[in-house]
Design brief:
binds flavin-adenine dinucleotide; alpha/beta; TIM Barrel; 17 helices; eight-stranded parallel β-barrel; 8 strands; globular
Length: about 400
């Protein structure tokens, strides 16, 4: 069946069928608020200031029934289960993302390791969840990754810490393999990426012989990622493994530009959005072309790229539920893509952060900033929610 031509990302009835009227109203109001540039600027600055001076609790209280409810699963896996099960009723699975970020102490690394393992055990044998996400900066000190990337020698103490971190990561990967759960490794700043690429490839050699278990991430806003991807696929073909990769555009554009300017090297980020889009779409072409030895997660909110992926699958006569092709959007965003893909039989996931409210505040601030309107126009998410509010005739919410 020609499913891609039947796909309609404007179908808000399918997109929001999982939301009750109350949840739809809440999310509509939240997006109305965060669409206001001045409010988000003021709110995020105030929140960052209050966090810096140790007042996390009042912000957490304000966020829990609002942005947290819109963008996160819950305090813990138990709490998140309700949302996870609900998504699955609409053929949408969940990628679990333990949302605690930016920790540097040994006890934090242990906590993150335990949380990722707990998520893998939760996902084991569940239809609703088959992927767990991880950030290796939650398991290895950033400063060590930075040194490894720059090929600077580690001190004896750093070497010991690194070996310990590595063994933690290998433990997690083995558990994922044993439980048949895939593990996503997020990409972060370009100046720590090389050791992450090496580590993930090492893990793929161990665990991706038959199925895609370990996924690296390629940020196509980087000028060098398309050639990198081609090289990895060629190498994987030689090594007879599946090169699994989450394809994203990239989330650290400003930070990358600032550092490049400050340290006087060429900005690694593409010069234009169009160049990023071209490389993203080419990445879809080369990976889907080589799908026998690759596996991808089309992790994007971009409708054109999502549609292109479905068209390429059709051209290559791949079934909609091909085990090497996943789609994913963040929980609370682009439901029009996720649920319309799910309804058409594609393998689609919501990326769901969970954890204590006070620990996911930085994530929530990023979501608010991303959805604000710089030009004063109504954002895409808000427009879709408004269409559905109207369709359901919930006029008093407008
Ligand atoms: C499931 C999922 C997992 C993710 N995991 C990661 C991850 O591990 N690491 C990570 O960095 N990000 C990750 N992201 C975020 C992602 O990188 C993007 O920031 C976000 O999804 C927006 O891009 P888009 O493809 O959805 O769509 P679009 O809205 O079409 O693209 C916006 C993106 O285009 C790029 N861009 C914008 N303007 C320019 C410009 N002038 N020049 C060059 N490029 C430009 C930027 O990357 C920007 O984020 C993830 C996203 C999802 C949905």
């Amino acid at each position: 069946m020609d499913t891609s031509s039947a796909l309609n990302f404007n179908n808000t009835q399918i997109a929001f069928a999982y939301k009750s009227n109350a949840a739809l109203r809440r999310d509509y109001r939240i997006f109305q608020l965060i669409n206001q540039n001045w409010l988000v600027q003021f709110g995020t600055q105030a929140a960052s200031f209050l966090m810096d001076v140790g007042f996390k609790i009042p912000i957490a209280i304000g966020m829990k029934p609002t942005v947290y409810a819109t963008f996160c699963g819950g305090n813990n896996l138990n709490e998140a289960s309700e949302k996870i099960n609900k998504l699955y009723q609409y053929n949408v699975k969940t990628v679990l993302d333990y949302g605690v970020e930016g920790k540097e102490r040994e006890e934090d690394f242990i906590r993150t390791e335990n949380a990722i393992k707990e998520a893998i055990l939760y996902a084991a044998n569940k239809e609703t969840v088959d992927i767990v996400s991880s950030k290796f900066t939650g398991l290895i000190p950033f400063s060590i990754l930075e040194k490894l990337h720059a090929k600077t020698d580690l001190t004896a103490e750093e070497k010991t810490i690194y070996e310990k971190s590595k063994s933690r990561i290998f433990d997690i990967a083995k558990l994922a393999y044993d439980k048949n759960v895939s593990l996503f490794v997020d990409a972060e700043e370009s100046w720590i990426q090389q050791p992450l690429d090496e580590l993930t490839y090492e893990l793929m050699l161990l665990y991706n012989k038959e199925k895609p278990i370990i996924y690296n991430t390629a940020q196509l806003y980087r000028k060098d990622r398309l050639p990198f991807l081609k090289k990895c696929i060629e190498q994987a073909q030689k090594d007879n493994i599946i090169y699994a990769v989450k394809l994203v555009r990239g989330a650290y554009m400003e930070k990358e530009a600032e550092r490049a300017e400050k340290m006087n090297y060429e900005n690694p980020i593409q010069d234009t959005k169009e160049a990023t889009d071209n490389d993203y779409n080419d990445a879809l072409r080369i990976t889907i072309q080589a799908i026998k030895n690759t596996a991808i997660c089309v992790a994007t909110h971009n409708e054109a790229s999502s549609l292109l992926a479905t068209q390429l699958m059709q051209q290559h006569q791949l079934p909609t539920n091909h085990p090497h092709i996943q789609f994913s959007q963040l929980y609370g965003m682009s439901d029009n893509i996720s649920f319309n893909l799910g309804a058409a039989g594609y393998s689609v996931h919501k990326y769901m952060p969970y954890g204590p409210v006070k620990d996911v505040i930085p994530y929530l601030i990023r979501r608010a900033q991303e959805n604000t309107s710089v030009s004063g126009q109504m954002g895409r998410e808000l427009k879709l929610l408004k269409d559905e509010v109207k369709r359901r005739k919930l006029f008093f919410a407008i």
